[in-house]
Amino acid sequence: MAKNEFNRSAELEVFLKVVEFGNFSAAARFFDNTPSSVSKTISKLEQRLGARLFNRSTRKLTLTSEGCVFYEHGLEIIAALNEAESIVGRQTKPSGKIRVNCNIPFGKKYVLPLLPDFLAAYPEISIHLELTDKVINVLEESADIAIRTGNLSDSNLISKKLGTARMVVVSTPTYLKINGNLQSPEELKTHNLLDFTFSRVTREWPFIVDGKERMIAPQGNIKVSDGDTLRHLVLSGLGIARLAYFQVEDDLEKGLLVSVLEDYTPSSTEDVYAVYVGQGGILPNRIRAFIDFLYSRVKIK
């Protein structure tokens, strides 16, 4: 009986992940398994239930009406199981692997310095940290937690706000001496504005002109894949960039960079979130421990 119950629970979790990801391959990556193994698990589940749960095509999977019913009840079952495990788990030390995806500037400034204290507090946890400014699909990449900046697109992910980052438009004194100081946002159109290669919710830089928002689309001869590289290009005197204040704070204090158009960016900010997948609002205690640790220790400028 115990073995059968365990198999039923495992089948249900595989089914729920296939629904979340929308395909067998992503679910297989999550379980460190093969797509064929996941497909066989679903087929066995359908045979045992005597009902088809998915309509399969070469392009996508869609739930049948029976699959929808099983999914709704399956979520309730897993949520109840997670709640029971969470209640018991709070009495024990969190353990296991946490896969974290974070943009490079925030990771270097805030996450990396906290890891020694976190791992000392939770010695049975291991961290797999990927620093990249590319916005990943959390479900497909099987990340437990992703740190994201700016507006969040609608999704089934859960988010916890870690703070708000002030944004500044910066350049070097030498660049501005050669190319001219800026008196208004409109003058940016005659300058080399450095930008990112990856897609964002908006690529434009916001300013307040005569009480109204004015958006300037950055145009320049260099685009890069991460904020750390962008900072180095600005420091090289190649142009103007919009970066988080925490990323260039030391450069500003040393006079290596100067902030421009401050009168037009009084409230230019981007929120920073920890986003993660959650079923029924229940998290493994290792993931909750890491998010709570970040929230209590990160103080964004």
Keywords:
Arc Repressor Mutant, subunit A; D-Maltodextrin-Binding Protein, domain 2; elongated; seven-stranded mixed β-sheet; single chain; alpha/beta
Question: Topology, pairings included?
Answer:
Elements: H1 2-21, H2 24-30, H3 35-49, E1 54-56, E2 61-63, H4 65-89, E3 96-102, H5 104-121, E4 125-131, H6 138-141, E5 145-149, E6 158-171, H7 173-179, E7 195-196, E8 205-209, E9 212-216, E10 223-224, H8 227-235, E11 241-244, H9 245-254, E12 258-260, E13 269-276, H10 285-297
Parallel strand pairs: 3-4, 3-5, 7-10
Antiparallel strand pairs: 1-2, 5-13, 6-11, 6-12, 6-13, 8-9
Helix pairs in contact: 1-2, 1-3, 1-4, 2-3
What does this structure look like?
The protein has 301 residues and is an alpha/beta fold. It has 3 domains: 2-89, Arc Repressor Mutant, subunit A, CATH 1.10.10; 96-163 and 271-297, Periplasmic binding protein-like II (D-Maltodextrin-Binding Protein, domain 2), CATH 3.40.190.10; 165-269, Periplasmic binding protein-like II (D-Maltodextrin-Binding Protein, domain 2, 3-Layer(aba) Sandwich), CATH 3.40.190. The protein is 43% helix and 23% strand. The chain has helices at 2-21, 24-30, 35-49, 65-89, 104-121, 138-141, 173-179, 227-235, 245-254, 285-297, and strands at residues 54-56, 61-63, 96-102, 125-131, 145-149, 158-171, 195-196, 205-209, 212-216, 223-224, 241-244, 258-260, 269-276. The strands form 4 sheets. Strands 3, 4, 5, 6, 11, 12 and 13 form a 7-stranded mixed sheet that branches. It has a two-stranded antiparallel ribbon with strand order 1-2. Helix 1 (2-21) crosses helix 3 (35-49), helix 1 (2-21) crosses helix 4 (65-89) and helix 2 (24-30) crosses helix 3 (35-49). The model is unreliable at 1-6 (pLDDT under 50).
